[in-house]
Amino acid sequence: MPAFAIKPLTILHTSDWHLGRRLYGRMRYEEFEAFLSWLQETISAQKVDVLIVAGDIFDTMTPSNRA
């Protein structure tokens, strides 16, 4: 029997958040905040060990402070 226990690794893979992107000229700050709240709750509830973000987090190279 091994001297250590092997624990499964829980990975959450996401991509292309595009925070700061407008939709039909409307800023979507409430949607971004809701997404980040959902993400935080999911990471906690699912006991995620690793978060992978493949793709763009922000929509521009110089996002606003609020984004």
What is the mean pLDDT? 91
Cα-atom radius of gyration: 16 Å
Structural class: alpha+beta
Distance between the termini: 50 Å
Cα shape: elongated
Short description:
The chain has 67 residues and is α+β, with helices and mostly antiparallel strands. It has a domain at 11-53. It has 1 helix and 2 strands, in the order βαβ.
What attributes characterize this protein structure?
67 residues; two-stranded parallel sheet; 1 helix; 2 strands; elongated
Describe this structure in words.
- By secondary structure, the protein is an alpha+beta fold.
- The model has no long low-confidence stretch (mean pLDDT about 90).
- It is built from one helix and two strands.
- Helices cover about 25% and strands about 15% of the residues.
- The protein is elongated, with a radius of gyration of 16 Å.
- The protein has a domain at about 10-55.
Give the arrangement of secondary structure elements:
Layout: E1 11-15, H1 29-45, E2 50-54
